Amino acid sequence: MSVVRLVIEYDGTQYVGWQIQPNGLAVQQVVEDALARICGVRHRLVSSGRTDAGVHARGMVAHFVTDKLLPMRAYRDGVNRHLPADIAVRDAALACDDFHARYSARSKWYRYSIYRAAVRSPMACRFSWQVRGRLDVQAMREAAELFVGRHDFSAFRASGCAARTTVRELFSVDLVEEDPLLQVDVRGEGFLRNMVRIMVGTLVEVGLGSRSPCEIEDMLSAGGRDRAGVTAPPQGLCLMAVDYAGQDVFPGQKCLDMSETFR
């Protein structure tokens, strides 16, 4: 038996998320269908995590186990011939026998894109959240720094989150200005459902002046969802990369970098 690792990029706009579910078409289902056409049998993909409806990925990692190994180009180029334009296998590689897309992961990198402009952009609307008011980026940076470290993120998870523990460690929360975009890069060992989106919604409220940076500490201590800010819309969020033993997949790649388009 062989373990094959895939790195998958997708525009999540038209999908109910990564994971197969009964209420609509999922990215996982589309990729498994295309893989079956190449392999002749159906393989179940095990992913590094899941993304919600409308969320994108630049580096979703998934693996499957097979007893009939094909050339790696078949799992990339061959599968891509059967995928729609909004999904692509970026890389396929033979992994070690004990590799697991989820359990072998050391950390994940998410990027949230905020479009700062008074007039909407048809080009940006699929991949960013338009915020019309002026944002105090320095205040947002002060607030973002308080998320770094190991905390109980109960206040920053969706009501339907089934995680056994709400304690997570974040390694960094960086704000990068690429006018008119403001990118919020979050790296951590793992995330609760909607955690990054609620963090970003809270940071935007800080940037608009309706909250102070120091309130983040109170939210983390109190733990109630009603203490944190709004949930930012899904289209601004992208899974950039998953880290395995110190190596990003893909390393050095940018996700949906549209900054040049709007200059």
Attribute tags:
263 residues; alpha+beta; Alpha-Beta Plaits; 2 domains; eleven-stranded mixed sheet; 20% helix; globular; disordered C terminus; PsdUridine_synth_TruA_C; EC 5.4.99.12; RNA binding
Quick structural gist:
With 263 residues, this protein is an alpha+beta fold.
Describe the structure.
Strands 1, 2, 3, 4, 5, 6, 7, 8, 9, 10 and 11 form an 11-stranded mixed β-sheet that branches. This protein has helices at residues 27-39, 72-80, 137-145, 195-207, 215-222; strands spanning 2-10, 46-47, 56-66, 87-95, 107-116, 129-131, 149-152, 167-178, 181-188, 237-244, 247-249. The longest helix has 13 residues, at 27-39. The protein is of the alpha+beta class. It folds into 2 domains: 2-95, Pseudouridine synthase I, catalytic domain, N-terminal subdomain (Alpha-Beta Plaits); 107-262, Pseudouridine synthase I, catalytic domain, C-terminal subdomain (Alpha-Beta Plaits, 2-Layer Sandwich), CATH 3.30.70. The model is unreliable at 252-263 (pLDDT under 50). Helix 3 (137-145) crosses helix 4 (195-207). Strand 8 and strand 9 form a beta hairpin. The chain is built from 5 helices and 11 strands.
